[in-house]
Structure formats: structure tokens, C-alpha cells
Design goal:
CATH architecture: 3-Layer(aba) Sandwich
Distance between the termini: 12 Å
Shape: globular
Helix content: under 10%
CATH class: Alpha Beta
Number of strands: 9
């Protein structure tokens, strides 16, 4: 699925939706059971409340960008998401809650900045 500034691969059961943002681009995808929302802007959430006590936190380089991926230590009990600082003005966060964390982690691993 392609958006203005990024893309990712998701199963065909997931559909895009748009939302109204004030200082960023927002929207998401849903399969009717789970929803992932995105926020691309200056103030995108960087998962500061998801600590090592409650979440796994992995920093990698994805598509040439430093990336933080978080997911709850107890399945379905907390946010699962990704944060990428593209530049000083653009940061991307994609996040949601899911009991099928493997599928969501695969989607997040496929994110590419365009």
C-alpha cells in the first residue's frame, strides 16, 4: 500500500482509510478486526510510554532510516508500532493494538520511506 510519504505491504484483507490531521498527515489501515493508524508529521508519537518493563523495544535501520519498533510483552496488552525520524520536520509513527502481533510486525517490517 502506498501513501504520500511511505509505503508498506499488507494482506489484501487490510483496507486504507484517511483521517483529518491538523499539523500532520494521518490515516490508517484496518482489516475489520485490527486497526493500524499512522501519523506523519513533526510531533508524531515516539513511544515514550512503552518502556522496557512493558514492551519489547528494538532499534534497527530500515530502508536507510533509524527505526524503533515496539510491541507488548503480554500479547494484546499495549501498543504495537514503529517510529521513524525521517528528518527534522517529518517523523512517522504507525501504531495499533492487535492479538495477531506476528502479522502486524510483518507489516511494520515492510515500511519504506518514499
Amino acid at each position: 500500500m502506498a501513501f504520500d510519504d511511505f509505503s508498506f505491504v499488507a494482506p489484501s484483507s487490510w483496507k486504507k482509510f484517511e483521517a483529518q490531521g491538523y499539523d500532520s498527515k494521518v490515516g490508517g489501515i484496518t482489516n475489520g478486526k485490527d486497526t493500524l493508524r499512522y501519523d506523519m508529521g513533526m510531533y508524531s508519537y515516539s513511544f515514550t510510554k512503552e518502556t522496557n518493563a512493558t514492551h519489547y523495544r528494538t532499534e534497527t535501520v530500515q530502508n536507510g532510516y533509524k527505526t524503533l519498533t515496539v510491541w507488548p510483552k503480554k500479547t494484546g496488552q499495549g501498543l504495537i508500532g514503529i517510529y521513524i525520524k525521517v528528518d527534522d520536520l517529518r517523523k512517522l509513527s504507525i501504531y495499533g493494538r492487535s492479538k495477531d502481533e506476528d502479522e502486524v510486525l510483518k507489516i511494520l517490517a515492510s515500511v519504506k520511506i518514499l
